[in-house]
Amino acid sequence: MHATPSIESCRTLLNGMPSLSALRRELARVTPDEARTWLDALYVLCAHDDGLRVSELAELIRVDPSVASRKLAHVEHAGLAQRDRDPRDGRAFVFHPTDAGRDWLESTTHAYAIHLASLLPGWSSDDVTQLAELLQRLGATLEEGAS
Length: 147
Description:
This protein is mainly alpha-helical. Helices cover 64% and strands 10% of the residues. The chain has a two-stranded antiparallel sheet with strand order 1-2. A hairpin with a 2-residue loop joins β1 (81-86) and β2.
């Protein structure tokens, strides 16, 4: 049987939302200007080895397909992704990250981690890991509910 959180505990979670917004703003502040519009697309693309169609990316990042298409065009133009014919349907395309795209994302993620560590004095590695695991669990639960 699954436990259901109390309304009060959910209110506490809602009260913490400004902290997530602050984290997002702080990371946006150190994101390279040229990547602010498409970093989410590259991140998701790198997590899918089989590649993604525009429609699949749009669903995953919860944007209109036209927005996902523009993001992928930027990533492709920067040499961080490539389009290939979809083996399931030769009329469609799938996008894959290039080695340069994976390297760029790894480098950027490393820079984020260094910056974030400097912002969290008094937080242990266990604290950060526990928060990350809970946020990932929350995201997965919300994704299941949206399906």
